[in-house]
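Notebook entry, structure prediction.
Reason for the run: the old model in the group folder had no record of what sequence produced it. Starting over properly, with the input documented here first.
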Amino acid sequence: MENLNLEIPEIVPEIILTSNDAITPKKKKALGVGYDIYSPQTVVIPSKTKRLINTELKLRVPPHIQVKIDPISVSTYMESYVVNCDKKESDGSEKIMILVSNKIDQDFMIPKGTLLGRIVYSIIVDQEQYVVRPIPIT
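New structure, fully documented this time:
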Protein backbone atom coordinates (compact mmCIF):
# COMPACT_ATOMS: atom_id res chain seq x y z
CA MET A 1 0.00 0.00 0.00
CA GLU A 2 1.35 3.41 -0.97
CA ASN A 3 1.90 5.94 1.83
CA LEU A 4 0.36 9.29 0.82
CA ASN A 5 1.93 12.41 2.26
CA LEU A 6 -0.83 15.00 2.02
CA GLU A 7 0.38 18.57 2.55
CA ILE A 8 -2.37 20.73 4.03
CA PRO A 9 -1.82 24.48 3.81
CA GLU A 10 -2.05 26.50 7.02
CA ILE A 11 -5.32 28.29 6.25
CA VAL A 12 -7.29 29.42 9.29
CA PRO A 13 -9.94 32.03 10.08
CA GLU A 14 -8.81 35.05 12.06
CA ILE A 15 -10.58 36.38 15.15
CA ILE A 16 -10.14 40.11 15.74
CA LEU A 17 -10.71 41.67 19.16
CA THR A 18 -12.39 45.04 18.50
CA SER A 19 -12.20 46.59 21.97
CA ASN A 20 -10.43 46.30 25.31
CA ASP A 21 -13.64 44.72 26.69
CA ALA A 22 -13.51 41.82 24.22
CA ILE A 23 -12.79 38.46 25.83
CA THR A 24 -10.40 36.23 23.90
CA PRO A 25 -12.19 33.07 22.72
CA LYS A 26 -10.83 29.98 24.42
CA LYS A 27 -10.91 26.23 23.90
CA LYS A 28 -12.51 24.49 26.85
CA LYS A 29 -10.50 21.33 26.16
CA ALA A 30 -7.14 21.04 24.41
CA LEU A 31 -8.55 18.67 21.80
CA GLY A 32 -11.91 20.45 21.54
CA VAL A 33 -13.11 21.60 18.14
CA GLY A 34 -14.60 24.93 19.18
CA TYR A 35 -13.56 28.26 20.65
CA ASP A 36 -15.93 29.62 23.31
CA ILE A 37 -17.32 33.16 22.93
CA TYR A 38 -18.12 35.18 26.06
CA SER A 39 -20.17 38.28 26.85
CA PRO A 40 -17.77 41.26 27.00
CA GLN A 41 -20.04 43.21 29.35
CA THR A 42 -22.93 42.68 31.76
CA VAL A 43 -26.23 42.86 29.85
CA VAL A 44 -29.76 43.11 31.25
CA ILE A 45 -32.50 41.77 29.01
CA PRO A 46 -35.94 43.09 29.96
CA SER A 47 -38.84 40.67 30.36
CA LYS A 48 -40.30 39.24 27.13
CA THR A 49 -37.81 41.07 24.89
CA LYS A 50 -34.78 40.33 22.75
CA ARG A 51 -31.36 41.94 22.96
CA LEU A 52 -28.53 41.92 20.45
CA ILE A 53 -25.20 41.35 22.18
CA ASN A 54 -22.08 42.58 20.43
CA THR A 55 -19.29 40.16 21.34
CA GLU A 56 -16.69 42.81 20.40
CA LEU A 57 -15.23 40.19 18.04
CA LYS A 58 -14.89 40.07 14.27
CA LEU A 59 -14.17 37.04 12.14
CA ARG A 60 -12.25 37.06 8.87
CA VAL A 61 -12.69 33.81 6.93
CA PRO A 62 -10.36 32.96 4.03
CA PRO A 63 -11.38 30.71 1.12
CA HIS A 64 -11.53 26.95 1.78
CA ILE A 65 -12.70 27.44 5.36
CA GLN A 66 -16.10 26.48 6.69
CA VAL A 67 -17.14 28.30 9.89
CA LYS A 68 -20.12 27.67 12.11
CA ILE A 69 -20.99 29.66 15.22
CA ASP A 70 -23.19 27.70 17.62
CA PRO A 71 -25.18 29.82 20.08
CA ILE A 72 -25.45 28.56 23.65
CA SER A 73 -28.56 29.47 25.65
CA VAL A 74 -27.51 31.01 28.95
CA SER A 75 -30.64 29.79 30.77
CA THR A 76 -33.52 27.40 30.26
CA TYR A 77 -35.70 30.51 29.93
CA MET A 78 -33.61 32.04 27.19
CA GLU A 79 -33.04 31.36 23.50
CA SER A 80 -29.91 32.46 21.69
CA TYR A 81 -29.32 32.92 17.97
CA VAL A 82 -26.31 33.93 15.94
CA VAL A 83 -26.96 37.00 13.82
CA ASN A 84 -25.20 36.87 10.48
CA CYS A 85 -24.87 40.49 9.47
CA ASP A 86 -24.04 39.60 5.85
CA LYS A 87 -22.17 42.87 5.83
CA LYS A 88 -18.44 42.60 5.54
CA GLU A 89 -16.30 45.35 6.97
CA SER A 90 -13.74 47.10 4.76
CA ASP A 91 -11.09 44.63 5.99
CA GLY A 92 -13.23 41.64 4.88
CA SER A 93 -14.27 40.68 8.41
CA GLU A 94 -17.75 40.25 9.91
CA LYS A 95 -18.93 41.14 13.43
CA ILE A 96 -20.02 38.28 15.67
CA MET A 97 -23.38 39.20 17.22
CA ILE A 98 -25.60 37.01 19.42
CA LEU A 99 -29.35 37.64 19.73
CA VAL A 100 -30.72 36.57 23.12
CA SER A 101 -34.45 36.28 23.77
CA ASN A 102 -35.83 36.52 27.34
CA LYS A 103 -39.02 34.44 27.59
CA ILE A 104 -39.86 35.03 31.26
CA ASP A 105 -41.84 37.70 33.13
CA GLN A 106 -38.83 39.28 34.78
CA ASP A 107 -35.62 40.96 33.66
CA PHE A 108 -32.64 38.64 33.18
CA MET A 109 -28.99 39.61 33.72
CA ILE A 110 -26.13 38.08 31.74
CA PRO A 111 -22.92 38.82 33.66
CA LYS A 112 -19.70 39.75 31.90
CA GLY A 113 -17.82 36.59 30.96
CA THR A 114 -20.93 34.43 30.42
CA LEU A 115 -20.56 31.81 27.68
CA LEU A 116 -22.69 32.84 24.67
CA GLY A 117 -21.56 30.61 21.83
CA ARG A 118 -18.84 28.57 20.18
CA ILE A 119 -16.87 29.09 16.95
CA VAL A 120 -16.23 25.84 15.08
CA TYR A 121 -14.35 25.73 11.79
CA SER A 122 -12.96 23.24 9.31
CA ILE A 123 -10.49 23.40 6.47
CA ILE A 124 -12.10 21.94 3.40
CA VAL A 125 -9.66 19.37 2.03
CA ASP A 126 -12.18 17.77 -0.31
CA GLN A 127 -15.92 17.24 -0.25
CA GLU A 128 -15.78 14.48 2.34
CA GLN A 129 -12.78 15.23 4.55
CA TYR A 130 -12.20 18.08 7.02
CA VAL A 131 -9.10 18.95 9.01
CA VAL A 132 -9.28 21.17 12.12
CA ARG A 133 -6.47 23.63 12.99
CA PRO A 134 -6.05 26.16 15.85
CA ILE A 135 -7.38 29.69 15.24
CA PRO A 136 -4.94 32.64 15.55
CA ILE A 137 -6.31 35.50 17.66
CA THR A 138 -5.09 39.05 17.06
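Summary: The mean pLDDT is 78.
The old model has been moved to the deprecated folder.
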